[in-house]
Design goal:
Shape: flat
Helix content: over 70%
Number of strands: 0
Radius of gyration: 16 Å
Largest sheet: none
Order of helices and strands: HH
Distance between the termini: 31 Å
Length: 57
């Protein structure tokens, strides 16, 4: 992947995260609830990844 494409990808991820935080704070979502949602999603993805790639062979 060329460097400019990689940097644009990083910029897009950072901007999406910033917009998500801005929208959640504007909607009045408490930081604790947002943190629990993020931790739950990360745990779900971790367990899903292990289940998909945890096979014999």
């Amino acid at each position: 992947m060329p460097l400019p494409h990689f940097l644009m990808l990083i910029l897009a991820v950072v901007m999406a995260a910033a917009l998500t935080l801005l929208a959640s704070f504007a909607a009045g979502v408490p930081e604790v609830v947002l943190a629990l949602i993020v931790l739950g999603a990360a745990a779900w993805m971790h367990l899903r990844h292990r289940r998909v790639h945890d096979h014999e062979g």
